[in-house]
Amino acid sequence: MPRRGESDQFGKFVERENARAPFAGLVHGLGIGDATSVEHPTLAVQGRIQTVLESASDHLPPSLQVSIRELLMLEIGPFLRQPVRESTMSMLDIVTTGLTDPAQIKKYLKIYGIDLDDEDNIEYAREVLAEAVDFFNTEISKSDQKKVHPDFTKSDVKESIYNLFKTAAGRDRRILIPQACAILRIAAVIDFLNVDPTIRLLPRAEEEINRIVEQYFHRAPREEAGSKRWYFTTGPGSILPVERIEKRTKTRKRMLAKALHKPSNQSTEVVDHIGLRITTKQPADTLRLIYDMFFNPATAIFPGITIRIGETKNMLLNEATLIEALYNPQRAEQLVQGLAEDTIDHEDLTSSEDTDDPAKNVHTSKSYRAIHITFDLPLPQSDKKDPRARFPIEIQLVDIKSRIQNDQSPETSHESYVERQLESVRARVMGNNLETKFEELSPEEKTDLLT
Fold it and tell me: 411-430 burial, b if ≥16 CB within 10 A, otherwise e?
């Protein structure tokens, strides 16, 4: 229990921080002091290589410079760390809104788009708050003693909302500040997901992915009885073997956890990992499959023009290298290794194999080195009134040898990854509030509050 002197200090701290809240929000919104910029390691290394090559340009023809740069990046690229995100915080990370008066809170929410004088809006707020409370109780809280306080789950939803804002701003029990902040942050992200137009397209996108898999990926012919091999085919004479194909599925809570886990809380962080993981027999098959699915006029099923080109892929791939790799297994393996990048799947994967056995549908997720192709998939219109739409899809491609190496590496399980992700979410939503910021003050700073 806080000592009397500390209670006085905390009260002064709350007054100061709430008074500063609008200005702190402005500073935060402009990204001042919260952003950390780190040069992309790949670009940094590429720049160093280019500097060296330019210094020798009098002796090296341009074609040889390109070959040397590619060779060096193929060897170095797989060992480079991923860069730190430029922005590590969002507006959800502000310490306090400073709002304690019901009239101020109502005005704030109306600007946000929720009118507490409108019955439909109140019902929507009730649904969002109920989902936020459920997520907190099932995913954030670790014990019954830490379940959501009754003051935040009253039958009068407006009273619950006012209690949340006042408590988060330090005008109620100090011990409940982290919980109030957490619920408000979770509710805000739920609203982000609810209103985002791309998220609404998720069911249509999943239907289209299922249709494409059923139409273009088929089991081996009957004469290969017992074989689990698949084929990618768009018609007679167009057959490419595929060892395995897995479709991503998402639960609402996993989407919410991922959005809360990502610094920006944006829906784009959620939707761009929906899609497929395809395992091929050989590295050259991986390259051929990308070519056939996106660029071969006779077989393409996806629009290559909508691929979101990554810096590494763009830097390593060129026509001559790709053609050589398609006919040279060793070169193909080198190229695929260079294109591959680390990824940890945070969603359940449903395999096209054993689809009749639910127990075999969930695969343990590993840390993979795979090729990623992210693109915008056009969605069919259900009727003429539907607007034309595209949905970001990610395809991971890996050859069977790399897949086996991935599976045998000492990586954590899907369940462990999810738990680590939730630990990060817990720290994020329960932290950075009046209570935690006060505890970070030095004894001298706390003493100065009373002077």
Answer: eeebeebbeebbeebbebbb
* 347: its two tokens: 């969603």
Enumerate residues 6+ apart whose C-beta is below 8 A from 235: 299
Task: Characterise 243 by phi-psi region: left (phi > 0), alpha (psi -120 to 50), beta (else).
Answer: alpha
Q: Give the model's pLDDT for residue 33.
A: 53
pLDDT under 50: residue ranges of the chain: 34-39, 83-88, 223, 311-312, 346-366, 410, 412
Closest CA to 3 of 326, 446, 359, 416: 446
| pTM for this prediction | 0.71
Instruction: Tell me how far apart the alpha carbons of residues 290 and 79 are, in angstroms, rounded to a whole number.
Output: 24
Q: What is the pLDDT of residues 167-218, one digit of tens each?
A: 999 998 999 999 999 999 999 999 988 988 888 888 888 889 999 999 999 8
Residue 98 is predicted with a pLDDT of 94
List the chain domain ranges.
4-35+96-192+432-448, 41-79, 197-415
Task: Kindly give, in sequence order, each residue whose CB lies less than 8 Å from that of residue 131, ignoring residues fewer than 6 positions away.
Answer: 187, 190
- pLDDT of 333-343, one tens digit each? 777 777 766 65
